[in-house]
Specification:
Helix content is 41%, strand content 13%. It has 454 residues and is α/β, with parallel strands linked by helices. α7 links the parallel β5 and β6.
């Protein structure tokens, strides 16, 4: 295992102020911008897009984006296979230039705790003062382009849950600013199609979306391969949401729409831990986020309004059934939509990974027809091989369902496996309930599906 140190800098003048690394560290200098205060990595474009909405970027929000860029660079450009002793846990230090050092320095240990929980790595976070100020574009306001006045932020990933979250807000006459982080092609395409469908339906409303295209150089770290597990991606996504909210409010409301069953992401079997268990919207992680913005003196909230609902319940209760029935198929749920190319299938939903199974179960539960194209359209047509990817997740679900049927009280124990739940009793009972109902929902969908080792 090598400890990687990533130090960001803004131009040559700022680079000269980088602190030295020890001989044992693998140091990477991370270019963020230039001496004129122009910042890259997609952040500068986001600042301009915000200004074009008639809004003003706040320094603490920009600092958060710079921090998130360091996290994204480390998470996606340091291979777990070659840079860790156990093919998973990496040792990472980031040194982040910020505008307000006194504001950020007390948060270092808290952010380390957040990132370690999220990615399973050992993080060290240090802040230093910027020597070059980042330019903030002036807001563009005119009679033809008045300032946008949203009342909250809604993260918009292109997934079915975020689509339902956005539709529910517009159906209630709310004015959210949709926020997206665009990455690989399938999610970006889903975001575009879903956003276009919403805009076409609510054509009388002003619907705006802020998209951040974070581009980390592929060769950032010499002689080290990239990493595709991207466990840290939600840190960037929520950071963009907080940044956007601060552009129009001192106490922004940031919504993270995700069904409670997948947010908990309880391991289906003893092997599904660590590398196989994500924590991107886990209640404990969102609690840590709420604590971070409080430490930064931001009087906002970060909420998952669907924490106690299964995906099927979200779909069934969507406030515009006609719209979700029409455009729900454009949303993207598959954990790896490009993998089908290597198995002779077209790119898109495989139909048998964990999120695909939960998606199919949700449609099965609701009155909506599932118009999604799956590589395996009917899981019950043939016996699935539980020794291959096409049957592994189905078999894991079947085992988890049987275990809970045999002992329903296990739900209160199993929900604690992915991470701590420091919640009130009623909330804890609610999470145990959504886990139980989520498994039951999947169980009804898989009732006629058989698996066997081949």
């Amino acid at each position: 295992m090598r400890r990687h140190v990533i130090m960001g800098f803004l131009g040559d003048e700022d680079r000269s102020q980088l602190p030295p690394a020890t001989a044992e560290d693998t140091l990477t200098s991370f270019p963020l911008g230039n001496d004129r205060g122009e910042i890259g990595l997609g952040i500068g474009q986001a600042l301009s897009d915000v200004a074009n909405l008639g809004l003003t970027s706040q320094r603490v929000g920009i600092d958060l984006l710079v921090l998130a860029a360091h996290v994204q660079a480390a998470d996606t450009r340091i291979s777990r296979r070659t840079e860790s002793q156990n093919n998973w846990t990496r040792e990472i230090k980031i040194v982040v230039p910020v505008h307000d050092l006194d504001r950020w320095r007390p948060t270092e240990s808290h952010i380390e705790k957040m990132l370690s929980f999220l990615t399973g790595d050992r993080w060290e976070v240090r802040f230093r003062s910027q020597t070059v100020e980042i330019n903030i574009p002036n807001p563009v306001v005119s009679d033809s382009a008045p300032a946008f006045s949203p009342d909250q932020v809604c993260l918009f990933s292109g997934g079915l849950d975020s689509l339902i979250g956005a539709i529910d807000l517009f159906a209630q006459n709310k004015k959210p600013l949709l926020v997206s982080h665009s990455a690989e092609g399938a999610s970006s395409s889903a975001q575009e199609k879903c956003a276009a469908g919403i805009k076409a339906h609510y054509s009388q409303k002003r619907i705006e979306r802020l998209r951040l295209w974070m581009r980390i150089p592929g060769n950032l770290i010499n002689n080290v391969g990239s990493e595709n597990t991207t466990r840290g991606r939600s840190f960037l996504f929520i950071s963009v949401g907080v940044y956007a909210g601060l552009c129009f409010s001192n106490s922004p409301r940031i919504l993270v729409p995700e069904n409670g069953f997948i947010s908990l992401n309880v391991p289906l079997d003893p092997l599904r831990v660590g590398a196989l268990s994500t924590r991107t919207t886990h209640p404990f992680y969102l609690k840590l986020w709420s604590e971070l913005i409080q430490k930064l003196n931001i009087a906002g909230t970060i909420e998952n309004p669907y924490w106690n609902k299964t995906k099927g319940e979200m779909l069934r209760d969507c406030r515009n059934q006609g719209l979700i029935s029409t455009i729900g198929r454009h949303s993207s749920s598959c954990s790896s939509p490009t993998k089908g190319r290597f198995q002779g299938h077209r790119m898109g939903h495989c139909g048998y990974c964990l999120p695909c199974i939960i998606r199919r179960a949700a449609f099965n539960e609701s009155c909506n027809a599932d118009l999604t194209g799956y590589a395996i359209p009917d899981l019950s047509r043939n016996t699935l091989n539980s020794m291959t990817s096409e049957g592994q997740q189905v078999r894991s679900f079947q085992l988890a369902i049987k275990r809970l049927v045999d002992n329903p009280e296990l739900a209160k124990i199993l929900v604690l496996k992915p991470g701590p739940l420091s919640l009130a009793t009623t909330e804890f009972e609610g999470l145990a309930g959504v886990y139980r109902r989520g498994l039951e929902e999947v169980g009804r969908f898989l009732a006629n599906v058989t698996t066997a080792p081949v």
